[in-house]
Specification:
The protein is mainly β. Helices cover 0% and strands 15% of the residues. The chain is built from no helices and 5 strands. A hairpin with a 3-residue loop joins β2 (21-23) and β3 (27-29). This is LRRNT domain-containing protein. Keywords: Leucine-rich repeat, Repeat, Signal.
Length: 93
Amino acid sequence: MMMSRDSNEGFGFDFCPPKCQCYNGGLINCSRLALISVPKLPQSAVSIDLSLNDIQHISDGSFKDLPSLTTVDLSGNKLNAASFTNMVMRYNN
């Protein structure tokens, strides 16, 4: 059973991004919120769904210091190859 949380507490998150839903296991759903940028994310994030928003650019460091992050869904946004030119991601083994 997955429990939803859209407040700033619980499920191992130090906060949940505004309007997003946070679930146990480090899952964050920020889809279909008309976001124009990647919100600040908690360090405990494992998977984030940012699909179907209006994101056009990924800022440097958007996914920095997220040691457990394994999945980011950016489908259905207004991104192109140039959007990722300066993006820096940290991969953990």
